[in-house]
Design a protein that fits this description.
By secondary structure, the chain is mainly α. The chain has one domain. The protein is built from 3 helices and no strands. Helix 1 crosses helix 3 and helix 2 crosses helix 3. The termini are far apart.
Length: 84
């Protein structure tokens, strides 16, 4: 993985995490948490959308939208396990 690719992953993760933080009503996870949730969400959605052959949008905006969707799924999964 090149340095530029790493920077793009961090930026996409940060934007997706911040958007998710706004959508979820201010979870107070901090920038590091937002980046982590966004990057993991992007990995989840990238895998799932590729597996099912789905492409929502193209380009950086599409990647951010997919990362937000993956982040929501990630937090839903954590929410289910937190109840137990």
């Amino acid at each position: 993985m090149s340095f530029e690719t790493l920077i793009v992953w961090v930026v996409v993760g940060a934007v997706a995490g911040i958007v998710l933080n706004i959508l979820m009503g201010g979870m107070r996870i901090g920038l590091g948490g937002a980046i982590l949730i966004g990057v993991v969400g992007a990995m989840i959605s990238g895998w799932a959308f590729d597996a099912f052959g789905i492409q929502l949008l193209s380009g950086l905006f599409g990647t951010i939208v997919e990362a937000v969707i993956g982040s929501v799924v990630l937090l839903l999964i954590f929410g289910v396990f937190r109840k137990y």
